[in-house]
Amino acid sequence: MKKIHVLYGAIIGVLLLVIAGLVYKFLLAGKTVTTEDRRTAIIMEPAERAFVLEEMRALLDAIRAMTDAVARDDMKKVAAAARAVGLAAAQHVPAAVAAKLPLEFKTMGRGVHAEFDRIALDAEAMGDGKHTLTQMGELLGRCVACHAIYQINPAAAPPK
Ligand code: HEC
């Protein structure tokens, strides 16, 4: 009887280790190397990199549309442009891409999308362009912070 308990214990222990390993690999670590400029390069297939970069360009375009709308005092447009890249827009990241992103990257990315939603809500509720600009300044700080840490695939070697 005792021997069987020990055996069960060992099996459960091994399974827990496997689960912990899987959680680390798929949820926490992502797939990365350290680059020459000491940023962390996330390793991705070309199509996956293209997906992320397209999302990034959409973020920049939202910032452009929001800046333009604030300048013209069109707070409805500010809200629409911000909401277009809010959390709802971030739901369709393919599982293969998500698995390669470190947890910290996903947390920062989610925070940025959530901030766009908050800016949209405030623009509608307050209609105060100066407040929007203050929020956008803080938001751009988050873009800068992530770009300082991460890159996608190590840069190619310079031509000889
Ligand atoms: C969670 C991390 C993260 C956040 C937050 C983030 N970015 Fe990026 N962004 C990246 C990475 C990584 C790259 C690829 C850089 C590289 O490989 O050199 C990138 C690239 C870009 C590019 C280049 C796209 C291309 O086609 O080459 C633009 C533009 C961009 N980001 C805009 C933004 C803007 C605007 C924000 C904020 C509203 C933002 N990003 C927030 C990680 C982030």
TrEMBL record:
Name this polypeptide is given: Cytochrome C
InterPro entries (alphabetical): Cyt_c/b562
Organism field: Candidatus Muproteobacteria bacterium RIFCSPHIGHO2_01_FULL_65_16
Single GO MF descriptor: iron ion binding
Keywords attached to this entry: Membrane, Transmembrane, Transmembrane helix
Chain ranges passing through the membrane: 6-28
GO biological process, one term: electron transport chain
Cleavable signal peptide: none
The organism's taxonomic lineage, starting at the top: Bacteria, Pseudomonadati, Pseudomonadota, Candidatus Muproteobacteria
Entry keyword Nucleus: no
